[in-house]
Write a structure and sequence with these properties.
alpha+beta; Dna Ligase, domain 1; Nucleotidyltransferase, domain 5; 5-stranded mixed beta sheet; 12 helices; 32% helix; Cell division protein FtsA; FtsA/MreB
Length: 454
């Protein structure tokens, strides 16, 4: 499938809103424009003031447009892991009709079997964000990735459905639309990030991906190329900065500068001799502190975040996965964060850095990941997801719900020189049943991931 064109990613984060415009040509992604603005109107990953968010989106879009020398009119939006839920879905339809004869499977059949898989009761406060097929069955043949063009009497699909709160989804849509943009797609952020930041082997054999954001920290357990568990800690880099500000009695801005320029996530790695000047509120002269003292403040919060993740994911044996831990996000750039994570998780830890020119900071991993996810979507996955455009989900307390989203579509962008096709990209999990007896290491992994959705 030809995915060449211009793609736009919008990441609405708690501490910053980022936009990236990229051109995808011959399997190569080239960043041609980007913007980043301090977030207003968000708290803990959730929109709390639509007007402020709309204003920030417009500002960030303008930055990216000026660098890319084009005007964009649509984006793909990422949904954070807050209150996401993952559940299995399964549907089956007759392809050949009532006469029992076989027929060739088409896009319409894929749409129909997807609808059949999603015919289930949903709470009135939730919407379907995405559905990802695991495999199709044509008659008695299983493990089919794309059934179109095959002949059969019966078509079955098994997959994974991702749902989120209607309020969160409505607010995201409202902000993007009021910013003058169309929504091409809504992407589950941890899925896009995992496909970008993890290698093929890490996605296959399993790894833990931790996004160290400013407003919150998100951990995703990935295995067999699927996000199977997520955990969100409502603490992030801003909490570290606030700790520094309170302990040292300095402004939030000064605390952020101290953290970025002199801080270590592990105090034992910091200097005990090098002194740092600190502007203290109410004092005319700066106070001097050591890097070690500053880093002790940082380590206390970072250790608390990692310990919470260890407790949440340790209960499902996630740290026994061969891929270890991969860190990304803005706080992953903090010195000593790898060493602290390795001490706490007791597994190999590495940091993922984007390789695209000009954006090699971990803080851009999410928004670039959204673009990568869109460019590499298989055609069958796009057909399945586009089914959501026409589905009304029946819940126990209402007769119908609004359609979830529009499918990924290519649209036009305005360019002062040339015209291009554009696909724009912006920026769950039920806990498994615990075992009564502690299984062996190898069996623990196998049992958890084999039975996670049962």
């Amino acid at each position: 499938m030809e995915n060449s064109g211009i793609y736009v990613g919008l990441d609405i984060g708690t501490t910053s809103i980022k936009v990236v415009i990229a051109e995808y040509l011959k399997d190569q992604l080239n960043i041609i424009g980007y913007g980043s603005s301090h977030s207003q109107g968000l708290s803990r990953g959730v929109i709390v003031d639509i007007d402020q968010v709309v204003s920030t989106i417009k500002e960030t879009i303008k930055q990216a447009e000026q660098k890319a020398n084009i005007e964009i009119d649509s984006v793909t939006v990422g949904v954070p892991a807050n209150m996401l839920q993952i559940q299995r879905c399964k549907g089956m339809i007759a392809v050949g009709g009532q006469d029992g004869n076989s027929a060739e499977i088409t896009d319409d059949d894929v749409h129909e079997v997807t609808r059949a898989a999603l015919v289930q009761n949903l709470p009135p406060e939730r919407d379907v964000i995405d559905v990802v097929p695991d495999e199709f069955f044509v008659d008695d043949i299983d493990n089919i990735k794309d059934p179109r063009g095959m002949m059969g009497v019966r078509l079955e699909m098994q997959g994974v459905m991702y749902t989120g709160p209607k309020t969160i989804l409505h607010n995201i849509r409202k902000c993007v639309q009021r910013a003058g943009l169309k929504i091409n797609d809504i992407v589950v952020a941890p899925i896009a990030l995992s496909e970008y930041a993890l290698s093929d082997a890490e996605q296959d054999f399993g790894a833990v991906l931790i996004d160290l954001g400013g407003g919150q920290t998100t951990a995703a357990v990935v295995h067999d190329h699927k996000v199977k568990y997520t955990y969100v800690d409502q603490e992030g880099g801003d909490y570290v900065t606030r700790d520094i500000s309170i302990v040292l009695n300095t402004s939030f801005e000064n605390a952020e500068t101290l953290k970025r320029n002199y801080g270590f996530a592990m105090a034992s790695l910091a200097s005990t001799e090098d002194s740092i000047p600190v502007e203290v509120v109410g004092q005319q002269e700066d106070e001097m502190i050591t890097e070690e003292y500053l880093s002790e403040i940082i380590e206390a919060r970072m250790r608390q975040i990692f310990e919470k993740i260890k407790q949440a994911l340790g209960s499902i044996n996630a740290f026994q996965l061969p891929g270890g831990v991969v860190l990304t996000g803005g706080m992953a750039a903090l010195q000593g964060v790898t060493e602290l994570a390795q001490e706490i998780f007791e597994v190999p830890v590495k940091i993922f850095y984007p390789q695209e020119m000009n954006l090699r900071s971990p803080q851009f991993s999410q928004v670039i990941g959204l673009i990568e996810d869109t460019t590499k979507q298989s055609e069958i996955n796009m057909v399945v997801k586009s089914t959501l455009e026409n589905i009304d989900f029946v819940s126990q307390n209402q007769t119908s719900a609004n359609p979830s989203m529009k499918p990924v579509k290519k649209t036009n962008v305005k360019n002062t020189k040339t015209k291009s096709k554009v696909v724009n990209t912006t920026n769950k999990s039920d806990k498994p049943t615990k075992e009564k007896k502690k299984p062996k290491k190898s069996n623990a992994i196998k049992n958890f991931f084999n039975n996670f959705f049962d």
